[in-house]
Write a structure and sequence with these properties.
The chain is α+β, with helices and mostly antiparallel strands. It contains 1 helix and 3 strands.
């Protein structure tokens, strides 16, 4: 029997990431909290840079300090509100 290869491993999926960072633009401090999408932290970093360039179009230099970068995990517990809410 031929060995099969599973192409869609859990690491291949695009995930939601919560990124909190501070951008110093022209001496002004801007605190951001964004939900970005990527398969890993490098993808998220690229998405963050695209977002910064979209927001601050007239700026040549942007200094960024990342405070938090976490993958958003959802819990699939459908029975959480079971019996509590009655329409």
């Amino acid at each position: 029997m031929e060995e099969t290869f599973e192409a869609n491993t859990q690491d291949d999926y695009v995930k939601e990431w919560m990124v909190e960072f501070i951008a110093m633009v022209n001496g002004d401090k801007h605190h951001h909290l964004s939900v970005l999408y990527g398969t890993d932290q490098q993808d998220v970093q690229r998405a963050m840079l695209h977002e910064l360039r979209r927001i601050y179009t007239d700026t040549e230099r942007i200094d960024v300090t990342i405070i938090r970068c976490e993958e958003i995990e959802t819990e699939d517990e459908d029975t959480f509100f079971e019996g509590i809410f009655i329409p």
